[in-house]
Please model this.
Amino acid sequence: MRTGRGLPEPAGVTRRRTTRGALVLGLVSGAVVGLAAEGYVLAYPDPADRTVVAASIGGNPGLAALFGTPRALETVAGFTEWRALGVLPLVGAVWALLAGTAALRGEEDAGRWDVLLTGPRSRRATTGWGLVGLGLSLLWLAAATAVATVATGLRTLGLAGALWTTAALLVAPAVFVAVAAVCSQLGGTRGQALRLGAAGLGAAYLLRVAGTAVDGLEWLGWLSPLGWVDRVAPLTGPDALPLAVAALAAPALAGAAALLTGWRDAGAGLITARRPPRSRPRLLVGPTGLSARLARGAGMGWLVGLAVLGVVLGLVAPTASEALADSRLSTDLGLSGVGTGGGVPAFLGAVFLMVTLLLGLQAAGLAAAARDEEAAGRLDTLLALPVGRLRWLAGRVGIGAVLLLLGGGVAGAAAWLGTVLGDAEQPLGDLVAAGLTPVPAGLVVLGLGTLVLGVAPRSTSLVAYGYVAAAFLLEILGGLFGLPAAVLGLSVFHHVPLVPAVDPEPATAVATVAVAALLAGAGALALVRRDVSAD
Amino acid sequence: MRTSTAGAPAIRTEGLTKRYGPVVGLDALDLQVQRGEVFGYLGPNGAGKTTTIRLLLGMLRPTAGRAEVLGIDAVADPRHAHRRLAYVAGDVALWPGLTGEETLHLLGRMHGSFDRAYRDELVQRFELDPSRRVRAYSKGNRQKLALIGALMTRADLLVLDEPTAGLDPLMEQVFRACVREAAERGQTVFLSSHLLSEVEALCAQVAILRAGRLVAAGTLADMRWDGTLAVEASFDGERAVPDVSAVPGVLYPVVDGTVLRCRVSGPVAPLLAALAAAGAVRVVSREPTLEELFLAHYQQQ
Model:
């Protein structure tokens, strides 16, 4: 096997597995920074407008809680910093958790590390070199982010601003790669490691929210890597101290991970079940029951995440919504279509785009999981039984659709609970409807993934996730640049009405579901005509 | 359709062909496996054994030709055929999060029918602990789990693709006993393997595949007696071992120290004369082993 540049094998393996994703993340993140700055200049050429925007967002604790501390919003630098650093570190942290657990734990679960562990290196050295490989991917991430930020933001932000922003953007991926490394030693499987990491990210976000929103609790932000990003303020008053904290924390966590490796068995975690596993064969009577059983673990974690997000959105809605009284601002936030009504429904209608994104990502993940089933040869095991391909596919897509419906419903109900807790109760029915509104868009992503599974199975994951990322960027940035409706319409998210700010549109929902069904049907036709190919 | 399947062979292919672009996976295979046979399907890695099985199971679409399993079209109606067969892959793929017990439950329920008492007996005989998760099983234990899952269905046809990879010699013996019992009950066994000893021990009928083509097929006894004898001659070491490659009828001569091994086709007299003239001290002749036949087929090119 080629190691490349004479690196020890474990470093080569982890680097190869993660570099491509790092390059994509870096280029997209950098481009988002530059485009946000350009978009602001285009949308608000007039200083008077900028002052109005700054006043309505700047004084708003709800928006600050969600997206981070706003500073000097009447400037290009201030607005760009708030826009870009509110969302991108979350994306970077999610990438880091996925890539880190896949490289350090997924490889081991699949049995591919056994070869490495029989080599001359100790377990700790193997994990150590694996971390070095991840570190190299982080360097590629840094290079790609810097290149894209400078290329798109040099004119508006200057070289120093672009580079400070790059440094701030690296904090979350670097720290959460190390968190993923620690979780990979604690969890018994990659899935368990990922759930631990996701819980860590959720806690970091909540600490950052509390530190930003509650007077007197600002110090909480220092406990969260996302709080460190918030404090770097790369474009409005750069501070190297939080960067230094991150630069110490990431290697310290990575070192802890290498130490912990020595205390566990290969293929096991430090947190292991003491009791033998209990057999629960109730669902295991057919392909659909099996799909339900396989979706249960990851699906539950995702539903919990949606519930937490829903409660937070409902809680901050009363304060945050005041900022949206200005309809121009809604447009600018990528939330066009909310109208001038303002109030809690308008805010929730706008920020439920985050729920839409999570539904889309889950749908892409469901399609990718179906392909995994085939690639690992488990589909062969099923198809050798009296199970037709269509019945298998229908089971997977059906269970996926149910999960997406549950996710939308849970998010809506949780947002209602949040508004109750925040003393701004909205009708439960309206918010559940709001949660269910993006479900057809999620189904389109699932349908697209099914189509790719049928015609080009090896690209399923790439196309499904790639479409969600592209559609999301188009939706949040397209409005700033005044792109024509035909282009915006390529994003399925553009066809999600902003309920509860507007009334639900049953006709749109039916049409969207019909598109999803057509895509899935075409995929099913292709699937029954092609070879089943394990890899 | 069912009525016409009663007397049909267990497996029948006509001109079954699979190409991957310019690469030929299987080239115009004509094969018949009769009911009740234990059929050995031999070939080295990459010869097309697994491609054949995946075509028979309807997972691959044939480029040309047709395949029938128990009289049922394997391409058009795989579900119907699969109610009556069970399959074990060489590289068993199961769900890591399920326990062994759950896996057997799933396989049994999805197959439609299985013999609970026989399942419990098999779990005992293969010494499998079904309470653990598949993730925690060794490769051999996963293989045992898949074998139990297939055998417990008592299906009319067992399709086994190198099923003993990863089994220890004791479990290999249990496997052989189970296959013999299946044959006694009238089940057909299609055993793909590159383990010649396994095929020799179990199979009466054998087919040999090379580079996607069938190069030999028949009963093991017929194949052994392919008109050639294996001859081994020893010399005392004082005189040189003779070069017999030009002697009429001699095939594949190999010299190993003072021992000459070769095969003879047709009359043995010219070789015996040459050996006597060279002062051979000992000459043994016998039917060739399956291994010798197999290697002969592969050394021709």
Remarks:
- Chain A has a mean pLDDT of 88.
- Chain A touches chain B through 33 residues (CB under 8 Å).
- The CA atoms of residues 210 and 216 of chain A lie 10 Å apart.
